[in-house]
Amino acid sequence: MPEGHSIHRIANTFRNEFLNSKVKIFSPQGRFEADAKLVSGRKLVASTAVGKQLFLDFENELTIRIHLGIYGKWNFYKVPVAKAPEVWGQVRARFGATSASADLRGPTVCEVIDQQGVQLVLKRLGPDPLNPDPTGSEALKFVSKVKNSKAPIGAALMNQAVISGIGNVYRAELLFRAGLNPKTPGERLSEEQLMGLWTDAVKLMQIGVKKGVMLTRDEYLTGRVLVQDRYFVYKREGLPCRVCNKVLVVEEFLARRLYFCPKCQS
Ligand SMILES: [Zn+2]
Fold first, then answer.
1. Is 2 a catalytic residue?
2. How far apart are CA 70 and CA 88, in angstroms?
3. Active site includes 235?
4. Is this structure's pTM higher than 0.70?
5. In whole angstroms, how far apart are CA 17 and each of 3, 46, 98, 101, 150?
6. Active-site residue flag, 33
7. Closest CA to 178 of 158, 154, 214
8. How far is the CA of 240 from the centre of ligand 1 (A)?
9. 88-119 pLDDT, tens per residue?
């Protein structure tokens, strides 16, 4: 499943290519047809991401909310919709502006909602490390949500009501970088440890937005990295830890695979 950084990249693409254009929207597959009519031909006035959700705001105060889920996928074309490739497969929505177009396939959610609906969704989402936090209040929200919970930190990081945008890769890598046992209850972690996790999430996810790939090893944060070198623990079970040489493990944990080092994160 795409993690928050890739949704922020999509929000950026919409901002760069579609903002202030009257966007033609239709649903070749049909499932989004009725909703598309509510906003098609209207000017796009904002494009934002919160965690794994994308919000496209139109001039008539309606918003398209999109959650890609596991199978959702975007294709962007730097041509007007008339010159876009012929529709193939199940396209839920096709977007066309004067100089760009895009196809959306297989999202879990693609719907038009009003401002009240937007507020309802935002209310249940935790702070997003990729959204500017000049006052530091978002960081404190994260710290207090975790501190007030018995849930293991490995579960809290995946809970979109606690922190938005983290998925399995960033969860595994952030906990390894912090030397934290994923099963430690949130309430047992110090404010410093939690603030450290938040700060590291901000740093790694900003790199993710910039590079388009999740990079988590400091020596590789800026360069080109082979996929097999990219991570500390994610999908490296059975291989030696890069720090202590102990064999890394994977476990089923709350229906997801959890990768960690039994020594560095004991
Ligand atoms: Zn280790």
1. yes
2. 20
3. no
4. yes
5. 22, 12, 9, 8, 44
6. no
7. 154
8. 8
9. 999 999 999 989 999 999 999 999 999 999 99
